[in-house]
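anyone seen this seq b4? input:
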Amino acid sequence: MHSQNSLWVKLFQSNYKWGVNVVPCLDGRRTGSNLCQGVKAYWPLLENNIAWKVNNGHFVAFWKDVWVSNTDRLRLLVDGASAITQVGTFINENKVWDLQSLIGTLPDLVLDRIQAIPTPRDEYGDDVIVWHDSTEGNFSLKQAYLAITATVDSVNCDAIVQMNGKATCGGLVRGDDAHFICGFATYVGICHITHAELWDIYSGLKISLDQGFLSIIIENGSKLAIDLINFGCLESHSSYNLIKQIKDLANAKK
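predicted toks r here
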């Protein structure tokens, strides 16, 4: 979006109100030419592959936006994070990252990545939108092709049920070269272990699809949960509706 004289940049600015530091929210009901329909179809994939380069920090939301290298939106790792908190909120009076306040909230690996980012300064200019998986931040046809054909090698997920019956689930999403994409953790409620494992599979599948991946391998240690998905169960089964949601989600991208 920085090549202001490019035809496709002018098209996006005119039709979709996209600016150097503004990402539009495309209305799914929007109609128009075949080109517009094509843009709409792949808009979620585009959104999932753009990130921010922090310069002055005026536009980047700490939890909501993608701005840390090899890391998804930080709010996916934290419950109840404010969507409007700016990155400048976590800079102390010495103008360095206030990572002490985030210890125990974010994984150490993410904190290390934030530490490596220069703190925002006005002299750096405005924050800019970049292509997420490019070292230079530039968009290219090759980068677009890699995004469309992206594969998740594995979504490693597991669930735990405590003695009091309370269940949690979580896992890691990794790319086709085994690099970390994001993690997730969810409190399920009180249920049996197989139902918790099914929730785990559902969560891992949904977050992977939300990332724009088209081919996904789910790795889960519960053979019973996997068999229920593959072979089905009676409608009277306590997990029938959840299993149906998993299948609907899996079929949605076919």
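The chain has a mean pLDDT of 78. Residues 150-252 form a domain with the Nucleotidyltransferase; domain 5 fold (CATH 3.30.420.10). kinda curious what u guys think
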